[in-house]
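Pipeline run #58 for the internal structure catalog. This entry was flagged by the ingest filter as a single-chain record with no existing model, so it goes straight to prediction. Upstream metadata was stripped on purpose; only the residue string is passed forward. Reviewer on rotation: M.T. Logging verbosity set to normal.
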Amino acid sequence: MRDLREEIRDRIDLVELVSQYVQLERAGKNFKGLCPFHTEKTPSFHVSPALNRFHCFGCGASG
């Protein structure tokens, strides 16, 4: 039986979810924006729709 977390992760469009809180712009195959976890002026928060993952290169937050 699949783990509940995996099932939820597969059903959620991460870009759509994150864009409700962060203004994202296209950056190649990914999206980038200002990190919601720390204060910054230059976008370092990246969302990968292909991997359904996010990562901030400024503070290291990921998921």
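catalog note: The chain has two helices and four strands.
catalog note: Residues 4-56 form a domain with the DNA Primase; Chain A fold (CATH 3.90.580.10).
status: ready for reviewer M.T.
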